[in-house]
């Protein structure tokens, strides 16, 4: 619990364990490219093309008019921010360093890559579909949190499923290809909290990484901080009101035989204000089998990835780390 960054009212100096070597410190981004913003209320053909094009070009895009009520999004942000403002004693019952526990509060100070630690606290919530009894493993403080999360996660998952259907239509797969077993696991919500950092140029909130799931929808806060890798530089993702930032995980890259890419991204820190973002991950069950879709294979397109269970994928992912090159090497044929 002493590792939790949000337990301290402020941080006057950056502890040495968070300071990166000079060659790993976040350089200033010079990239002026913006992520596409796709209006999901437009015609289906137009939206399908836009989603597929954005996925192939950048692997990231933002969506608006997606159907999740703005009130549900604002309530989710408010409840999560209130959770991290609570006194340490109120958060302590939910803190755990047991990585096998589906719902828990932890700090990324428990993760070490090369010895450096990352300036982030995280509340992870495992959400069944439907939510059912899984909500009773979530924090009961603040009082409205469980109700707010339930009202947020169901429509957000529905947006993710609709985006997967649109991608399937665009790639020539049957529209329900990703329904059933491949998305039958829990929906995982990571509430990432980045307290004000006394030396933002010396550390990171999250390291460069690719996601381990099929598709991610991020409610990214009004405070900028997300950066996406693009042609050797980093794109600063500017917040768009009532938008989700969408990106693809390694599993979707494997399932589409590399047609869609899982792109590295990272989180920067801020010297003056806290940033709280909400990432929603659509996950398969551990025994689910993931491999390139047969419909995307042919004489000129052999399988580029080996077929694995999600359990095996996660075992390797945790072993080699989340960098794109490492995971690509581990699963590519």
Automatic annotation (TrEMBL):
One of its GO terms (molecular function) is metal ion binding. Keywords: Iron, Metal-binding, Oxidoreductase. Residues 183-284 form the Fe2OG dioxygenase domain. It comes from Brachypodium distachyon. Belongs to the iron/ascorbate-dependent oxidoreductase family. It comes from the Eukaryota. Pfam families: 2OG-FeII_Oxy, DIOX_N. Gene3D superfamilies: B-lactam Antibiotic, Isopenicillin N Synthase, Chain (2.60.120.330). Coiled coil: none annotated. PANTHER family: OXOGLUTARATE/IRON-DEPENDENT DIOXYGENASE. The keyword Protein biosynthesis does not apply. This is Fe2OG dioxygenase domain-containing protein. InterPro entries: DIOX_N (IPR026992), IPNS-like_FE2OG_OXY (IPR044861), IPNS-like_sf (IPR027443), Oxoglu/Fe-dep_dioxygenase_dom (IPR005123), Plant_2OG-oxidoreductases (IPR050295).
């Amino acid at each position: 619990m002493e590792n939790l960054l949000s337990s301290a009212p402020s941080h006057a100096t950056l502890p040495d364990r968070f300071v990166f070597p000079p060659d790993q410190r976040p350089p200033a981004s010079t990239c002026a490219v913006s992520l596409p913003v796709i209006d999901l209320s437009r015609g289906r053909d137009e939206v399908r093309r836009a989603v597929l094009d954005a996925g192939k070009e950048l692997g990231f895009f933002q969506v608006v008019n997606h159907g999740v009520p703005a009130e549900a999004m604002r309530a989710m942000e408010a409840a999560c921010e209130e959770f991290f403002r609570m006194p340490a004693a109120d958060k302590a019952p939910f803190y755990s360093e047991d990585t096998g526990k589906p719902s828990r509060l932890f700090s990324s100070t428990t993760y070490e890559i090369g010895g450096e630690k990352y300036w982030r606290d995280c509340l992870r919530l495992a959400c069944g579909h439907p939510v059912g009894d899984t909500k009773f493993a979530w924090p009961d403080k603040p009082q409205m949190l469980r109700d707010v999360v339930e009202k947020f996660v169901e429509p957000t998952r529905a947006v993710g499923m609709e985006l997967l259907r649109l991608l399937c239509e665009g790639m020539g797969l049957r529209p329900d290809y990703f329904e059933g077993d491949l998305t039958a696991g829990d929906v995982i919500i990571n509430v990432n909290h980045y307290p004000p950092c006394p030396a933002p140029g010396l550390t990171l909130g999250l390291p460069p990484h690719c996601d381990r799931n099929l598709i991610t929808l991020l409610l990214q806060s009004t405070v900028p901080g997300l950066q996406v890798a693009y042609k050797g530089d980093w794109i600063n993702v500017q917040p768009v009101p009532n938008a989700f930032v969408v990106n693809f995980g390694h599993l979707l890259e494997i399932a589409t035989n590399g047609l869609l890419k899982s792109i590295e991204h990272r989180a920067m820190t801020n010297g003056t204000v806290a940033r709280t973002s909400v990432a929603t991950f659509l996950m398969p069950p551990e025994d689910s089998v993931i491999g390139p879709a047969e419909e995307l294979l042919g004489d000129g397109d052999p399988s580029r990835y080996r077929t694995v269970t999600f359990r095996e994928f996660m075992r390797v992912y945790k072993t080699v780390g989340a960098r794109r090159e490492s995971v690509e090497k581990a699963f590519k044929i």
